[in-house]
């Protein structure tokens, strides 16, 4: 019989400001025998994502808050080690949302079987082939309505979503792609590896000045992963008819007060701008189109990606805390083995 | 020969903060003989509008700033008193954008001949039959995408645009229409004359609390004429998928600092909201549809309107200053006679 001890990380307190290790606990659960229709999966990689911080709060949102005392949910990929379902066989690779645990046992309907692709790690299903890159794709094409020749600005550009936004923008005909990130190493990666036309370190000085220098003719699309002063800088740089896809606001997630918004909101009127927020869960109908595009780009070497891998299921909360501090380049995942 | 002395009001200084009478001057200009293709029009009504404050600044915008030392442009309606054009005849009623003057002489191409409607004052072409009501129509239907059953909140609801937004929302199937205004008299007018389901005086207490009481199940559409804390209250009251049409920000127009934006911008992401700014000049293609709807509503008595009339072309700047202070109910116009 397959292993039956599942190590799981649970949320035990709602973080106030920056989350800490004390907000989580790791428990071991002995799994019962499989019920009919269930499968048991040994996860290989578990995802940690910025959006998870928002769901740790008890706030009105599309997604319900995480329950206290329950195992954190979220993306994960693993291999079936036991099955009492005709739909899924032992050995299948499956993607699911059962989250922060090494062994998961649930009804087969909660798992999606995916192919193994030679040369592509299974963790790609959490990033470049998964919800992370879908987020970039939907935000850029559906929410911001990217048009050929647009100048695109992406904040948090060296993150899992940002690196995809920059590459998809280029592949879909953007005229110029600019990114901001928080270290010289990340900035170098943006232009040298990810094909950004220009990039800057937001810690190096005035955001508005750095953005104006990188986009002297203004920006048409802004993909916001950061919020706060980044959004204000984008509003100041927008051309008439500019469009912002608001995806994340990592600069605000761990703030204990309610920080004031941009001082230049009136530009939204005078320049005819549009700001639209989204959470990718409401746009999964675009997955087939995304998947077709992305598989082709990957096969042709037109899209590259980085992963920051943290080892050990016990370290999942630690990995998440590092993500909050920007310790990742590209997608951050936990390797269970 | 027709009268040839034109009294005109010009912008002579860019206001800093609240505009004052010293920012304007009134001059008298002797018109030359008509050149071929020109017409001379005696204005009956001249429009003063909140958007004009924005164009008095020297700022990047869809519309160019007003030139200093030049006569203010803007909507006006009058009667042709001399014509050297085959397109326009003496006695025709015309609408145009030549602005703050009693007599105007320009090429016929700048004038649009409109019918006289029994029982409807010519000033209606500046309000309920003109750009003002088109602004409400476009903002509500095209920008905010009003859907049947939506709960709609309008700020500055007793103004020229706001009174139209409330009525058009109701006629186009809104489930509930709520307005805010700045006096008890205006609030009473909203529910008693304009068919709002509920209304409140924003000076009476917490905007968020008053809005929550008026819309206990949240709002779906916000039509913003005010900006600032009104926008923040709307962001706090939005249901998932809410849509804001940002039309004006009169609370900010005369601010000398750059006031901070809403403290709850992150709701845009978590609730999947959309904020879109617009200036009606970019949506004139909707005029025929608007005109057909509005003519029918007026003929059937389904739309009512107020005007605040200031007498004397010499008082145009004074009228505008009064508009900035909210001294109008409905459309404010200057009667030249």
TrEMBL record, chains A, B:
Keywords of the record, alphabetical order, are: Oxidoreductase
List the molecular function annotations (GO) for this entry.
oxidoreductase activity, acting on the CH-CH group of donors, NAD or NADP as acceptor
Q: Where is the Enoyl reductase (ER) domain?
A: 22-334
Acetylation: present as a keyword of the record? Answer: no
For this protein, the record's Pfam families field holds: ADH_N_2, ADH_zinc_N
Cross-referenced InterPro entries, in alphabetical order? ADH-like_C (IPR013149), ADH_N_2 (IPR041694), ER (IPR020843), GroES-like_sf (IPR011032), MDR_fam (IPR045010), NAD(P)-bd_dom_sf (IPR036291)
Tell me the protein's name: Enoyl reductase (ER) domain-containing protein
Source organism of the structure: Cryobacterium psychrotolerans
């Amino acid at each position: 019989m397959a292993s039956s001890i599942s190590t799981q990380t649970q949320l035990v307190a709602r973080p106030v400001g920056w989350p800490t290790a004390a907000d989580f606990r790791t428990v071991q659960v002995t799994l019962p025998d499989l019920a009919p229709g269930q499968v048991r999966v040994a996860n290989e990689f578990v995802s940690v994502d910025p959006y998870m911080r928002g769901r740790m709060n008890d706030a009105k949102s599309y997604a319900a808050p995480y329950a206290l005392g329950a195992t954190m949910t979220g993306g994960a990929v693993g291999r079936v080690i036991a099955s009492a379902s005709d739909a899924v066989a032992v050995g299948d690779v499956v993607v699911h949302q059962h989250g922060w645990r090494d062994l998961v046992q649930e009804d087969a309907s909660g798992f999606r079987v995916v192919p193994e692709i030679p040369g592509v790690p299974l963790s790609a299903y959490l990033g470049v082939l998964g919800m992370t890159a879908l987020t970039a794709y939907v935000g850029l094409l559906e929410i911001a309505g990217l048009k050929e020749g647009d100048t695109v600005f992406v904040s948090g550009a060296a993150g899992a979503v940002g690196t995809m936004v920059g590459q998809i923008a280029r592949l879909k005909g953007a005229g110029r792609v600019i990114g901001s990130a928080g270290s010289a190493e990340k900035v170098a990666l943006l232009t040298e590896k990810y094909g950004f036309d220009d990039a800057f370190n937001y810690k190096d000085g005035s955001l508005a000045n750095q953005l104006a220098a990188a986009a002297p003719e203004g920006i048409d699309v802004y993909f916001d992963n950061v919020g706060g002063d980044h959004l204000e800088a984008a509003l100041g740089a927008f051309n008439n008819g500019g469009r912002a896809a608001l995806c994340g606001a990592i600069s605000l997630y761990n703030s204990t007060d309610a920080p004031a918004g941009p001082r230049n909101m009136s530009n939204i009127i005078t320049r005819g701008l549009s700001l639209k927020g989204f959470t990718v869960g409401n746009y999964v109908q675009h997955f087939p189109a995304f998947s077709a595009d992305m598989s082709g780009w990957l096969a042709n070497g037109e899209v590259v990606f980085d992963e920051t891998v943290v080892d050990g299921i016990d370290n999942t909360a630690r990995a998440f805390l590092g993500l909050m501090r920007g310790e990742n380049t590209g997608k951050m995942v936990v390797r269970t083995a």
